[in-house]
Write a structure and sequence with these properties.
Helix 2 packs antiparallel against helix 3 and helix 4 packs antiparallel against helix 5. This protein has seven helices and 17 strands. With 384 residues, the protein is of the alpha+beta class.
Length: 384
């Protein structure tokens, strides 16, 4: 789940991150009645005069869920929507180094997030609503003893983000039914035993036409190129240039308003991962760092338009946007995907047809490469 980025006027000042809201804004705690959707009429009333950029419009939301099940550890914002621990120091290059027992907990959270993402993705088809997908995600997360991290994070009303077509990120599940030709990013984060695992993937409803294939393949390949670069001693700022250079030569653009982030016991923390060329002093990769890379790549303008719901961000011109995301661990010899594909994961066309890495990408360490070859071969055999 991405962060919104705001830059200060001083070009040498560090990038500061906030969720997709105005700095310092607060929402009143919702009453039981206000947890229900305002419905289409309410959404329309709240957005009078607002011009949506494309074909995706707000639908009706079902009531917000509350997790009451025993044995589910909740993050500190679950009840009131306010994160108590930001984990951020005064300097953007100060990054937490995870201890081995913390890394093992993040592996477990990452595995749960991957399982839930795969199950949610399998449900995507023409005629299903994004609210129904959210119901599946919520149930499968709880079934694994985890909490759906987006739920009530800064008052976000659902358990996952479903971003369709021109929606860049933070799409709120509602009653709109998916249609043939839609593309959708399903963004899953699960909180297990005090740690978050965060990942997202693209899905196509029906068959992908050539333009869709090019957008998704380019987004996937630039993401892989950025992850392949990562290892101890590399600067976080250099990730952005790899992504921007790759997509611009293919005729696409990269979003600047939102970025990847550090992650662990805190949902969003240092480092800030910018997906465009920059000189921000966001530190160097060190063994034990955990963070996300999640480029948002657009057909046309990368500028974002935020809806009146203060969450949904679309392109300003209605051009489509695509995104992939992993939670990543810096190891002594490279990078490992903590939310990587598993034995039961389906293989998508962008993994089969990638110019950079065919098959599942699980990391750039020798151990990760060997594991990727094994489960990729099994997935290919299963698809035959």
């Amino acid at each position: 789940m991405t962060f919104m980025k705001e830059r200060t006027i001083n070009v040498r000042a560090p990038t500061t991150l906030y969720m997709n809201k105005k700095k310092g804004s607060k929402k009143k705690k919702s009453s039981s009645s206000s947890n229900s959707s305002l419905g289409f009429a309410g959404a329309l009333q709240n957005s009078l005069g607002f011009r949506y950029a494309g074909s995706i419009l707000p639908g009706m939301q079902s009531p917000q869920k509350i997790v009451v099940e025993d044995g589910i550890m909740k993050p500190d914002y679950a009840d009131d929507g306010v994160p108590k621990n930001t984990g951020r120091g005064l300097l953007p290059w100060i990054i937490e180094v995870k201890k081995e027992h913390e890394i093992e907990k993040m592996r477990a959270a990452g595995r749960v997030a991957r399982e839930v993402l795969d199950i949610g993705g399998q449900a995507i088809r023409a005629g299903i609503s994004t609210d129904e997908i959210d119901n599946i995600v919520h149930a499968e997360t709880l079934k694994r003893g985890a909490y759906p991290s987006p739920l009530n994070y800064h008052n976000f009303p659902k358990s996952c983000c479903t971003s369709v077509n021109e929606v860049i990120c933070h799409g709120i599940p509602d009653d709109r039914k998916l249609q043939d030709g839609d593309i959708i990013n399903l963004d899953i984060t699960c909180y297990l035993d005090g740690y978050h695992g965060d990942c997202s993937e693209m899905f196509v409803v029906g068959e992908a036409d050539p333009a869709t294939k090019k957008l998704l393949q380019t987004t996937y390949d630039c993401w892989v190129a950025a992850m392949e670069f990562c290892r101890p001693g590399k600067d976080y700022k250099d990730i952005g240039a790899i992504i921007e250079d790759y997509v611009t030569k293919e005729g696409f653009s990269t979003v600047r308003n939102f970025c990847g982030h550090g992650i662990g016991s805190v949902f969003h923390t240092n480092p800030s991962i910018l997906h465009y060329r920059n000189s921000e002093p966001n530190g160097q990769m060190t063994e034990g760092h955990t963070f996300t890379i999640e480029p948002m790549i657009c057909e046309k303008s990368p500028k974002a338009l935020t809806w009146p719901d203060e969450w949904t961000a679309t392109t300003v011109d209605g051009g489509r946007s695509a995104q992939f995301e992993h939670t990543l661990l810096v190891t002594s010899d490279g990078l490992e995907a903590l939310t990587g594909k598993i034995e039961s994961s389906p293989m998508q066309f962008w993994e089969k047809e990638s110019k950079l890495h065919q098959g599942f990408w699980l990391g750039n360490t020798e151990a990760a490469k060997k594991r990727a070859v094994k489960i990729s071969e099994d997935a290919m055999k299963g698809a035959e």
